[in-house]
Design goal:
This protein is α/β, with parallel strands linked by helices. The protein is built from 10 helices and 17 strands. The strands form 3 sheets. Strands 1, 2, 3, 12, 13, 14, 15, 16 and 17 form a 9-stranded mixed beta sheet that branches. Strand 9 and strand 10 form a beta hairpin. Helix 2 runs parallel beside helix 9 and helix 8 runs parallel beside helix 9. The longest helix is centred in the N-terminal third of the chain and has 16 residues. The structure holds zinc ion. The site of zinc ion has 5 residues, from strand 1.
Length: 323
C-alpha cells in the first residue's frame, strides 16, 4: 500500500515537472486554404497538430481562398484545435464594443426612397446591421439599397448609415452588430457546424481592457500576438501572448529561439502564423519552412500543444508553484 502510494507520488511529480518543460503552439490565423492543403499534410505524418483560428463569414460563404467546413472538420478530427477568429475580423475600436451599445439613435427619414431611414454613426465600420433578428444585406451604393427592402448602405465618407428596412416604421429595432456579438455568435455558429471553439484568437491581435473582459466572459482562453519573443510563463489563460511569424522568416530563426528560450524551460512559445504554401493573405509562410521547423520540433522531442492543452499545463505548473 505504502509502496503504491510512493510510486503514484513519484508519477505525479514527474507529471507535474513535465507540465511546462518547454512547449510550442502553431496557430494558423484566418482559415485560408493552404492550412488544409499544406500545413495538415506536413504536420500529420509527424504526429503534430496545430490550431486553426477561423473567421466564420468566409467559412460559411464558401469563399474559395478559405477552407471549406469539411476541411476544417478534417483538421478537428486530426487532433487540431479550432478557435474562433470572429465573424468578420473586426477591431473592437471600429464597431460598437458590446451588446448594450448596438442601438442607433436619431433616425430620420432618408429622402432617397419611401420608408428608408438614415442615421449618423460614430463608428469607423459596420460589421452587420440587424432589424430585430433579421440580418440586413449590405449594398455597395445608396441606389442599390433603395431598390431592395431589407438592405443597407454605409457611407464611410459621411458616416451615414442608410437603411431600407424589411418592414417600414421599425427603425427602433435596427441595431449595429457589436464586437461582443462577433465573439459570442462566432462561437455559436462554429458549434452549429460541429466545430468546438473554446479559444478566441483576437483579430489584428488588437487588445484593450474591453477585449480582455469580453474574452473572459465568452471563452475559456484567449490569445493575441505581439512582436517579441511571444513567450508565456504566466498562467492567465486570457492573456496568451503570441509571436508573429513573418513571410520571410527562416525556420532556423525559430529553431534557435526554441533552443535558447523554450527547450527544457518553463516557457510556452505560441506562434501566430497565417497561410502556408499558397501565398494567400497576410504574411504567408513557405511550406518548406514549416516542414523544416516541424520536423526539428518532432526530432528534438519538443511538446507541440494546442491552446487548450498549453493553457491547461500552464495552470498545472502554476498550481505546483503555489504549493
Ligand atoms: Zn486574422
Amino acid at each position: 500500500m505504502a509502496r503504491a502510494l510512493i510510486l503514484s507520488l513519484a508519477l505525479l511529480a514527474a507529471w507535474v515537472s513535465q507540465a511546462t518543460a518547454g512547449m510550442v503552439t502553431l496557430v494558423f490565423d484566418d482559415g485560408l486554404r493552404g492550412v488544409h492543403q499544406y500545413a495538415l499534410p506536413i504536420l500529420r505524418p509527424l504526429g503534430l497538430a496545430g490550431v486553426a483560428a477561423v473567421i466564420v463569414e468566409p467559412l460559411e460563404s464558401g469563399n474559395a481562398d478559405y477552407m471549406t467546413v469539411a476541411q476544417v472538420r478534417e483538421l478537428q478530427a486530426s487532433g487540431w484545435e479550432i478557435a474562433s477568429h470572429g465573424l468578420s475580423h473586426r477591431r473592437i475600436t471600429d464597431i460598437p464594443a458590446r451588446y448594450a451599445s448596438e442601438a442607433v439613435s436619431r433616425w430620420r427619414a432618408d429622402p432617397t426612397a419611401p420608408g428608408m431611414v438614415q442615421a449618423y454613426t460614430p463608428h469607423q465600420q459596420v460589421a452587420c446591421v440587424l432589424q430585430g433578428e433579421l440580418r440586413l444585406a449590405p449594398e455597395p451604393s445608396l441606389a442599390l439599397a433603395s431598390r431592395r427592402p431589407g438592405s443597407y448602405f454605409f457611407d464611410r465618407i459621411t458616416g451615414e448609415l442608410h437603411v431600407n428596412p424589411q418592414s417600414p416604421g421599425a427603425d427602433g429595432e435596427i441595431r449595429l452588430c457589436s464586437y461582443e456579438r462577433e465573439m459570442a455568435e462566432s462561437r455559436q455558429r462554429l458549434e452549429a457546424l460541429g466545430l468546438h471553439a473554446s479559444s478566441y484568437v483576437v483579430p489584428y491581435n488588437y487588445v484593450n481592457d474591453d477585449v480582455i473582459e469580453l474574452g473572459r466572459r465568452h471563452y475559456a482562453r484567449m490569445a493575441a500576438g505581439y512582436d517579441g519573443d511571444g513567450l508565456n510563463r504566466g498562467a492567465d489563460p486570457h492573456r496568451i501572448v503570441r509571436s508573429v511569424v513573418h513571410a520571410g522568416q527562416p525556420a532556423q530563426e525559430l529553431i534557435e529561439l526554441v533552443q535558447r528560450e523554450v527547450r527544457g524551460q518553463d516557457a510556452w512559445l505560441v506562434l501566430c502564423l497565417h497561410d502556408v504554401g499558397s501565398g494567400l493573405g497576410w504574411e504567408p509562410w513557405p511550406a518548406g519552412e514549416l516542414k523544416a521547423f516541424a520536423a526539428w520540433l518532432r526530432d528534438n522531442g519538443i511538446d507541440v500543444v494546442t491552446l487548450a492543452q498549453g493553457a491547461e499545463r500552464m495552470a498545472r505548473g502554476q498550481a505546483k508553484a503555489a504549493r
